[in-house]
């Protein structure tokens, strides 16, 4: 019986780690992730201008943002700032309200970029407003011409069955 105790403890610890997780930015690649500092803006406890993990090029004519959330009903904000002005955030969309019947994968495949920023280093900020507070993640990006962007996989950009996103007061999308 004592041989099963370490396995049980490890399983419980891993379950607790996952249970405390809030959301993961699947695409584009995040600057960094730490569940304990995710409530620290603007980038979940990471330096907004950090480019050490690489830079994702995103087209101004539409690019995807994919997340996985452990919450069933949240609000998302998608914003950007130039690396040269990292505290001046510009909203890319209206706030969206996400509801899901289970573990939600959520992707918006056509977030508009900022044409005036083509070729400049920027930061993508994803903010999740959830029942336990406001949470942040960022990605190092550069806007490029062209599009819409198709440089992602379905594992990075997909929606769970029954996931619904509402934008503003008049538009509703349901993913099946």
From TrEMBL:
CDD domains on file: LPMO_auxiliary-like
Cited PANTHER family: COPPER ACQUISITION FACTOR BIM1-LIKE DOMAIN-CONTAINING PROTEIN, HYPHAL ANASTAMOSIS-7 PROTEIN
One cellular-component annotation, GO: side of membrane
Name recorded for this polypeptide: Copper acquisition factor BIM1-like domain-containing protein
Keywords: Cell membrane, Glycoprotein, GPI-anchor, Lipoprotein, Membrane, Signal
Source species: Orbilia blumenaviensis
Lineage: Eukaryota, Fungi, Dikarya, Ascomycota, Pezizomycotina
Domain Copper acquisition factor BIM1-like residues, every copy: 20-162
Keyword Membrane set for record: yes
Signal peptide: 1-21
InterPro entries in alphabetical order: BIM1-like (IPR046936), BIM1-like_dom (IPR046530)
Localization: Cell membrane
Membrane topology: Lipid-anchor; GPI-anchor
């Amino acid at each position: 019986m004592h041989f099963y105790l370490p396995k049980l403890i490890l399983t419980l610890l891993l379950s607790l780690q996952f249970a405390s997780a809030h959301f993961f930015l699947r695409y584009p690649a995040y600057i960094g992730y730490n569940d304990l500092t995710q409530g620290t803006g603007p980038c979940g406890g990471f330096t907004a201008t950090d480019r050490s993990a690489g830079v994702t090029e995103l087209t101004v004519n539409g690019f995807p943002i994919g997340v996985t959330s452990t919450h069933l009903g949240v609000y998302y904000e998608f914003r950007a700032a130039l690396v040269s002005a990292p505290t001046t955030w510009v909203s890319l969309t209206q706030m969206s309200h996400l509801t899901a019947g289970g573990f939600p994968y959520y992707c918006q495949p056509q977030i508009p970029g900022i044409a005036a920023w083509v070729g400049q280093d920027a930061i993508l900020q994803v903010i999740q407003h959830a029942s336990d507070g406001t949470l942040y993640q960022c990605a190092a990006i550069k806007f490029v011409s062209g599009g819409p962007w198709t440089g992602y996989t379905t594992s990075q950009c997909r929606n769970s069955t029954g996931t619904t996103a509402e934008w503003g007061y008049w538009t509703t999308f349901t993913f099946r």
